[in-house]
Design goal:
The protein is mainly alpha-helical and 390 residues long. Strands 2-1-3-4 form a 4-stranded mixed beta sheet, with helices on both faces. Helix 4 links the parallel strand 1 and strand 2.
Length: 390
């Protein structure tokens, strides 16, 4: 039986490796994932660099000379705002505009609260960081002037501050890094599906479309042997794509300006090994599920359509976790895809790989693979599946 499985496996691998276009398609996500991560981290780091001055367009700067002097001492670059500044802000040409009204000087000199207006578009994420920095500068000026007024009246500024909140961040550098790298587990899980997609599409649906499935099943080899050989080839391609993706992420992390983000990651051999151990069991379930879905397709293109829709499965838990972070429960690790994403996230935060969650995640993947392979083997005994009859 092992020899027969090996024969089917070698035939599938040989046919798949001959198709250069198919290989190129398989390698797109392993290349694009790390590249997108690197570009995203570089863009975020560029926005967060503290030595980059705040450029602030101002309307009515003559009404608040002391405020303007304070902003310039803090490194802000001030310039006159155009007449159509609201339109320029909406278009993204300006990040923000500071509007100082004419009665600012009167209120300020009388010791009242003088109001300024910071015009920005909160839907523009590119302007979010500069606006926050400008707001912090304005709040710092307000606090400084407020303290001076209280001192002038013989009152301690501490009386105006009933509670001072001191931040104590207990997150380790690795845990902080995980917040910026949460797309890594998602991409790794997606690649376990994408790596074997082409081969799974061709394994049964492609054979049936070419009319070669019936002669293949007429061989003395049991149907289970044929399924195992094709599944093994699909798993190998999935594992290969996952390993390539992991190595791509390692290169991306080494070139990413993580210091500017205030995080530290050491993608050494142990880190790579543990990440792969957490994700690779999913290749068994993903490959078997793809073959199961492909069995119902009448053609190669139809199988690709079904399997592309199946790719939405690994994306769903990642999107939900990013939008609604939740505390992991033990039962979650028994759900394939979700368990691997949670485990990879824990490893990324520098936590130890816990044995029980790992066993649950791996066992559930093996169980799904066995059920799917059993279903595919049984379906190959149905002439409606073999001959593509409706």
């Amino acid at each position: 039986m092992r020899r027969q499985v090996g024969t089917v496996f070698r035939k599938e691998m040989r046919d798949h490796l001959r198709d250069k276009r198919s290989l190129l398609t398989v390698m797109m996500l392993p290349v694009l994932g790390p590249l997108m991560t690197l570009l995203t981290l570089q863009m975020v780091a560029s926005m967060m660099r503290r030595d980059q001055p705040v450029e602030l367009a101002v309307v009515g700067r003559e009404h608040a000379p002391s405020l303007m002097a304070f902003l310039e001492r803090q490194g802000a670059i001030l310039k006159e705002a155009p007449q159509n500044y609201e339109e320029r802000v909406r278009d993204g040409a300006l990040d923000m505009v500071l509007v100082v009204p004419e009665d600012y000087g009167r209120d300020f000199s009388q010791g009242h609260t003088a109001e300024v207006r910071l015009v920005a578009d909160s839907s523009r994420r590119a302007a979010l960081m500069p606006v926050q920095r400008a707001r912090r500068l304005l709040e710092a000026y307000s606090g400084q002037v407020g303290s001076q007024r209280l001192y002038a009246r013989g009152v301690s500024p501490e009386l105006a501050m009933a509670v001072r909140v001191a931040d104590a961040d207990l997150a380790t550098p690795a845990q902080s890094a995980a917040q910026w790298l949460n797309m890594v587990p998602l991409f790794l899980v997606m690649v376990t599906f994408a790596g074997g997609l082409q081969l799974a599409s061709d394994a049964l649906a492609g054979e049936r479309e070419r009319g070669s499935l019936e002669p293949l099943l007429l061989n003395p080899a049991p149907r289970g042997v044929v399924v195992l050989g094709k599944w093994a080839a699909t798993v190998v391609m999935s594992v290969f794509a996952t390993v390539v993706t992991m190595m791509g992420f390692v290169l991306a992390l080494k070139r990413a300006p993580l210091e500017d983000l205030g995080v530290t990651v050491h993608p050494d051999a142990a880190f790579i090994g543990v990440m792969l151990v957490t994700v690779l069991p999913l290749t068994l379930a993903a490959s078997a599920a793809q073959m199961w879905v492909s069995t119902y397709a009448r053609s190669f293109k139809e199988a690709q359509l079904y399997l592309n829709l199946l790719m939405m499965v690994p994306m769903a838990p990642g999107v939900v976790l990013s939008l609604m972070p939740m505390k992991s429960e033990l039962w979650m690790f028994a759900v394939p895809v979700l368990g691997q994403e949670l485990l990879a996230g824990e490893v990324l935060r520098g936590e130890m790989l816990r044995p029980l969650p790992f066993l649950l995640a791996s066992a559930s993947s093996v169980a799904v693979a066995l059920v799917a392979l059993r279903a595919v083997t049984r379906l190959l005994g149905d002439e409606r599946i073999v001959f593509g009859r409706s």
